[in-house]
């Protein structure tokens, strides 16, 4: 029975072999036409740096002391990124980017404390906000000279307040959170460089609160960043 099925399938394959060759040639020709007409049919791995500002940062509105001190200087952003510019699988370009960025105030926070032994003393505290994000952005077909891409962002935030100048002990407060958001890229490709501007909005959804009450706490970030990436074609 198995031999009969095998012989039957072989006869069907031989009968269709000519049609299969024709279909294969049509697909191959169609692929060559697409490749010749496409603006880019090669993928690129890119690495680069970014610098920017927070247009909105909710940490600048969150009070951390009884005096309602706010980190109003948490504005400047700097970081690095690595990613893929995909051109082969989809009609338009797809950006897949892993990004690291950090923000610190220009000056340390100073809080005056009072003790029984030494009276008033000013302690300096460091603040840092570190973000790790996965950005996906798909190019919009708008027919303009500048490429525009939009997509979702998945991010993890690490906010740290620390000091090594307190009188009795080193102080460190960490808050980890995870959030979702959206992005938009404006960019041009020149030779092996990818240069442009991106804006990313994220909202934290999950907090590693370590038994703290964060019911009235929220994190929202809107950044505007200039990036310069170097591309490796493959």
Descriptive overview:
The structure is a single chain. By secondary structure, the chain is of the alpha+beta class. The chain folds into 2 domains: 37 residues; 195 residues, Beta Barrel (Porin), CATH 2.40.160.20. The protein is 15% helix and 56% strand. It has an 8-stranded antiparallel beta barrel with strand order 1-2-3-5-6-7-8-9. The longest helix has 36 residues. It is elongated, with a radius of gyration of 27 Å.
What CATH calls the topology of the largest domain is Porin
- Gyration radius, rounded: 27 Å
- Report the top-level CATH class of the largest domain: Mainly Beta
Across the major sheet, the strand order is 1-2-3-5-6-7-8-9
Kindly report how far apart the N and C termini lie: 50 Å
Helicity level? 10-25%
Q: What are the secondary-structure elements, in order, as H or E?
A: HEEEEEEEEE
Give the domain tally: 2
Main sheet summary: 8 strands, antiparallel, barrel
What's the overall geometry?
A: elongated
Tally of separate helices:
1
Using the 3D structure, state the CATH architecture of the largest domain. Beta Barrel
Q: For the residues shown, what is the average pLDDT?
A: 77
Structural class by sheet pairing and helices: alpha+beta
């Amino acid at each position: 029975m198995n031999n009969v099925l095998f012989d039957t399938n072989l006869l069907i394959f031989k009968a269709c072999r000519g049609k299969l060759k024709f279909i294969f040639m049509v697909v191959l020709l169609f692929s060559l036409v697409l490749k010749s007409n496409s603006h880019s049919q090669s993928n690129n791995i890119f690495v680069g740096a970014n610098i920017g500002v927070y247009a909105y940062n909710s940490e600048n509105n969150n009070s951390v002391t009884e005096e309602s001190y706010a980190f109003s200087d948490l504005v400047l952003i700097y970081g690095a990124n690595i990613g893929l510019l995909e051109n082969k699988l989809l009609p338009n370009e797809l950006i897949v980017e892993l990004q690291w960025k950090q923000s610190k105030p220009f000056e340390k926070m100073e809080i005056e404390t009072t003790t029984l032994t030494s009276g008033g003393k000013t302690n300096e505290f460091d603040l840092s906000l570190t973000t790790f994000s996965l950005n996906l952005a798909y190019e919009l077909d708008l027919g303009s000279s500048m490429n525009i891409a939009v997509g979702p962002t998945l991010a993890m935030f690490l906010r740290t307040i620390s000091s090594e100048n307190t009188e009795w002990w080193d102080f460190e407060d960490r808050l980890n959170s995870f959030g979702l958001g959206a992005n938009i890229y404006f960019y041009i490709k020149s030779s092996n460089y990818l240069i442009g501007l991106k804006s990313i909005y994220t909202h934290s959804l999950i907090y590693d609160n370590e038994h703290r009450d964060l019911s009235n706490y929220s994190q929202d970030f809107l950044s505007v960043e200039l990036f310069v990436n170097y591309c490796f074609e493959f």
